Amino acid sequence: MTDADREELHPSSGDDVSEISASDPPHEPDIDPHEPDIEIVARVRAGELRFDAEPEVEIRFPGSGKRDSRQVTTRKNIDKPIKPGKTYRRVFVATRISTRLLDEDGVG
């Protein structure tokens, strides 16, 4: 992955966001209390993309217990909301979904 790809995936926003890859060694959970307990990162590129209808997207964090859950999506060359029937070119979408379990006092 190039630095340009990382910038597209995690644009500079002042947040310290890191990407996890299959080659990263496992980390100890007590190293950084702000690391998520569960994280899913997905990205896709397409030369051409067209929607017949506006997609229905829903992200839920079901379960019990206190947690800090987040979903961040970055889009390039796609309208928000999607315009059905329009052809989008040179498309990029990245989504990061994460959750961190908290104790009763709301501390991770």
Written account of the structure:
The chain is mainly beta and 108 residues long. The protein has a domain at 1-11 and 44-57 and 66-108. 6% of the residues lie in helices and 35% in strands. The chain has one helix and three strands. It has one helix at 3-9; strands at residues 38-50, 67-76, 87-101. Strands 1-3-2 form a three-stranded antiparallel beta sheet, with no helix packed on it. The longest helix is centred in the N-terminal third of the chain and has 7 residues, at 3-9. The radius of gyration is 17 Å and the shape is elongated. Residues 1-29 have low confidence and may be disordered.
Protein topology:
Blueprint: H1 3-9, E1 38-50, E2 67-76, E3 87-101
Antiparallel strand pairs: 1-3, 2-3
What is the tally of beta strands?
3
Portion of residues within helices: under 10%
Number of alpha- plus pi-helical segments:
1
Give the end-to-end Cα distance, rounded to a whole number of Å. 30 Å
Coarse shape: elongated
Structural category: mainly beta
Rounded mean pLDDT score? 76
Q: Numbering strands along the chain, what is their spatial order in the largest sheet?
A: 1-3-2
Quick one: biggest sheet?
A: 3 strands, antiparallel
Beta percentage is: 35-45%
Work out the radius of gyration.
17 Å
Low-confidence stretches: 1-29
Instruction: Please trace the helix and strand order, writing H or E for each element.
Output: HEEE
